[in-house]
Each structure stands twice: as structure tokens, then as C-alpha cells.
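User: Run a structure prediction on this.
Assistant: Running it now.
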Amino acid sequence: MNIQKLALSITEALIIYGLIVVGYGILAIHISQTWSGDWPVDRNIPWLTLDTFVMVSFALSFFGFIVWRYLKYMGEAK
């Protein structure tokens, strides 16, 4: 199994699904007018509100994009 291709697939998934969650979160915040972020994503984790979830998803997506670019560059450099 090629580890670099596996890492590329994982980072692509982080980018795509992270941005989908960001879009969903922004849409849900605008529709529900929940600006304070008091809408728990999960009842078992009360500190994880929608705004925190969106920020973490965006950060993971951005990190995935950076790693994806690095892996693509390293694959082309060979």
C-alpha cells in the first residue's frame, strides 16, 4: 500500500468534508439566528457548540489543504 496516496486521500476528505460542515454551519447559524452559538452539536459534549464546531472544521480543512499541497509537491518532485 502506498502511504503517500493514502495520506492524499485523507487530506482530500478533510478538505471536502470540512468545507461542507463549514457551509452547513454558516447556513444553520443564519437560518436559526443563533449568533451566540448556544446550539450544542451533541448533548453529551455541551461545550461543543455550533460555532466552535464550524471553526474546528475550518481549521481541519485548512490544515488538510496545506498537507495536501505539500504531498502533491513532494510527489511531483520525485
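The longest strand covers residues 45-49.
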